[in-house]
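User: Assemble these into one structure.

Assistant: Restating your components, then the assembled model:
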Amino acid sequence: MSVAMVGAGQLARMSWQAAISLDVELVCLGAADDAAGRVGVEIVGGSGYDREALRELARRGEVLTYEHELLDLDALAAIEAEGVAARPSAGLLRLAVDKVHQRRTLSAWGVTVPAFDPAPDTSAVERFAARRQWPVVIKARSGGYDGRGVWICEDMTAVEAAFEQAERGALELYVEEGVPLANELAIIVARAASGEIAVFEAVDTHQEDGMCREVVMPTTVGSALASQARDVAVEIAERGELQGLMAVELFVNRRGELLVNELALRTHNTGHIHTEASRVSQFEQHLRAVLNLPLGDPARAVPAAAMVNIIGPADGSDPADRLAAGLQVRSAHVHLYGKSPRPGRKLGHVTVCAPTPDEALQRARLAAAQMQGDA
Amino acid sequence: MSVAMVGAGQLARMSWQAAISLDVELVCLGAADDAAGRVGVEIVGGSGYDREALRELARRGEVLTYEHELLDLDALAAIEAEGVAARPSAGLLRLAVDKVHQRRTLSAWGVTVPAFDPAPDTSAVERFAARRQWPVVIKARSGGYDGRGVWICEDMTAVEAAFEQAERGALELYVEEGVPLANELAIIVARAASGEIAVFEAVDTHQEDGMCREVVMPTTVGSALASQARDVAVEIAERGELQGLMAVELFVNRRGELLVNELALRTHNTGHIHTEASRVSQFEQHLRAVLNLPLGDPARAVPAAAMVNIIGPADGSDPADRLAAGLQVRSAHVHLYGKSPRPGRKLGHVTVCAPTPDEALQRARLAAAQMQGDA
């Protein structure tokens, strides 16, 4: 069996670890010195915006899938029309790439999302804020990630600054309500072509500057909301006829309502915790789903767990040089991505399983801090 | 950090999965189409009996270690004398390679082993059996594994047949008492150069034709024997100044006494279970020990687990072709080694974690049987 994957970063690298166990071949689109290329994954050189590279990649696997959304969806649709098994499909992938399309589609499916409007100009934002209230959030319609392409605006001065920045990036924008947050959740669902569905437990996520920093399970929001999150994930997976893996990021607002904030049609930072905390990793589950194999058991395997990202420190030093300090923390599972250090760059993560979420989080934080050199 | 490893089979392959997480480079001695070579591990071509190949391998890593004992110990000792950090040392490795040396050394350290004698000829066996009782076990002094080089003899006719077979293989032999078995245990200990020691929980093992087939934890022998097994493992690791990982296989005889049957100075089939069942895998623990990193937490992470090997079926068919059937078993963690199928060859294993050892074993057996085509 063989899987072709757009992208060769850390998600592809961890997919490779899972692929080795199942003896599944993995071929990735990217560069030889990308995180996955450095550990022996076969690489097709090129970018997801190059139709020929996509076509060449697709030839190398039974199925085509992705570890990021930086690709030309029209080219993908064309290749799909030529008979390539793109999983998820180009049509569904558009939900992750085009946020306005995502919000509209989810609304049409009865899934609650933050109130939003396209924002071709600042006056559209002004009208939206007048109808609702400040603050509002301006977001890039596509291409934003890890907090890039997101501006929280308290007034029109901030809106104008956001538009100026966006113009430099030639970004198309939309505006949405600033949701007063009680909690943030994420949940990962897998669906195979057979229709089989498996949902991991919802996790609590903690973002910082728009980047996922910490994940904890079990969630603290209570079983009613967790079960609602599960229903939302299943609803989207079934409506969208998902073939593969999907991560759903959710807001819980101060009224205790659940709103979908973000979709990713792939493995996701919030799912790293399952490698140690659940009965199957998201990486193996992804491979099983796209290959239409029976799905793995997504049940939690431990009382509690926490995952904390290892971020490149401001002084440019390399957390890998402090691996021993991280491993000194009891039960710390350290995952390094083999990427060159840059301040603010995700370079790895630590997961700790423990009797309670608090203990797991404390130890995972300590290990990450040790490796970042700030402990 | 970088580790050079003699051998490129399934143990090296699973070591590679662990090395990727720690961003440790792994270079293996073997062939490009060995189990590890097929998944992108860098390979130095050659055998452990070729001094130049060993020297070339050693140049490629900070430390030199092993996934099997098929190597020239004199060559290794010579390379060690040139300044290579061989972990474990050539001296200690001799315990695993030369069984008579092993039995004598362990006895001198006060560790109980089966009664034994060198057996240069059949009359030595006859004298041994006269002093003790039938049956006796004739074993190759070195080079035997997975039941090869072992003959259980009820009488002198069987002894003569064993000697005939051994002569064809030019094997040096020894004889030992046939221990009336109540149980078989295995336990894995890691020791770093720092002196830090970590011991995994003892596991029950079930052999068939001398090959490890099943492993279950927690052990059924009770905490007194388990703790005694732990003491034995620590004693050998400390006396031998182990740097690396060691597996100790133990007999429990019908009088409830513990005897060391076998040592391996490396990762071991009986340790595969820890990948899912304990807080660190034996493969990561091995890397941490030889690199003198802080050792991982060897505590059991789940109520119970079982590991069952996937063996090449008699009809020559490939269990990998029945992967879907194996994955249909709930919570089955399937590990395939990417080896070409041959009847009786270890091609993979399945681990299942469950609330009870019986349930884990039943499900692991079912998954392995499904993949072997005999379920």
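The interface with chain B takes residues 1, 13, 16-17, 20-23, 39-41, 279-280, 288, 293-294, 296-297, 299, 301-302, 320, 323-324, 327-328, 330-331, 333-338, 348, 353 of chain A (CB under 8 Å).
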